Amino acid sequence: MHNASHILQLVRDFLLGLPKRIISKEFLIFLFFLALSAIFWLLMSLNGTYEKEYPVALRLTGVPRNAVITGPLEDTVYVTIRDKGFQLLAYSTSKSIQPVSVPFSAYAQKDTGHGNVPIGDIKASIYLQLFKSSKITQFKPGKLDFYFNFGLSKVVPVRMAGTVVPGESYYLSKVEFWPEKVTVYANRHLLDKVHSVSTENLYITNFSDTLYRMVSLKSIRGVKIVPNRVQIGLFPDILTEESVEVPITAINMPAGKVLRTFPSKVKVSFIIGASMFRTIHVSQFSVVANYKELASDSTKNCKLHLKMFPHGIMKPHLDVNQVDYLIEENE
């Protein structure tokens, strides 16, 4: 309103500022016919045939109290209507298209937990609100359905999806969710297929401190997830190079023979998170010398193999791969 008043004031000032000889009867007649021609042009334009898209709200009604909607019906459809400009203008102003009710009982198939709503039924309900001359030329989306059940559910764990890479010299030591598990509601067929739910694809890089974030869970058609958002905790740890001394164990030794190596222990080096190193024990490693290789090898050195190491360490390797040895008879 303020802008309109401002424009009118500018026009008034302009007209008043004109010389009186210009503001004549002929000038006012010109303005009248100019406005009249604009009105005729508008009327002719509105009398033409056009197409315009309108949103129409949908309402699923009559849902039983014990029913859980696991895959909701679309709440809005979009119809393209062809008609004269006058009618299309009416739909945009006073004759707006009212929401369409979709009765649950008319379409719900209780044995499958699925309801399919024919597009033709929705079009018919919309046509009841339109002028007889109006025609629907396009309808979106092309499919309308919903899923439901009567309380069937199970609890499943949450999994992370996407790319999460800490900064240089760090690694992701732990991922936690709050809550760790969520409840999923679906029909029996879908429940049997859902063993976990994942987050929306994450892309988090170059961080060195513990990071907390609320994330959405990836939707599954026909499945209701409660809650559908969880908090994720990302725990980076700084990488460090460590080592332990591990005894050498002989395998495939014949009865009565003993293998002695020099030295009897070798160092195993690896990369690990600083906090995780406290949980590492020598017993989690295994370094072996295979007697069968000694019997077929003419060299004087014994080859060593790293057969076992704990989960979570990176780039484990022996500092030496060969040692001197001596085979003794066991008395």
TrEMBL record:
Positions of transmembrane segments: 27-46
Q: Does the keyword Transmembrane helix apply?
A: yes
> Known Pfam families for this protein?
YbbR
This protein's record includes keyword tRNA processing: no
Q: Which Gene3D superfamilies match?
A: YbbR-like domain
Q: Which InterPro entries match?
A: c-di-AMP_regulator, YbbR
Q: Which UniProt keywords apply?
A: Membrane, Transmembrane, Transmembrane helix
Name the chain's protein: YbbR-like domain-containing protein
Traced from the root, the source organism's taxonomic lineage reads:
Bacteria, Pseudomonadati, Bacteroidota, Bacteroidia, Bacteroidales
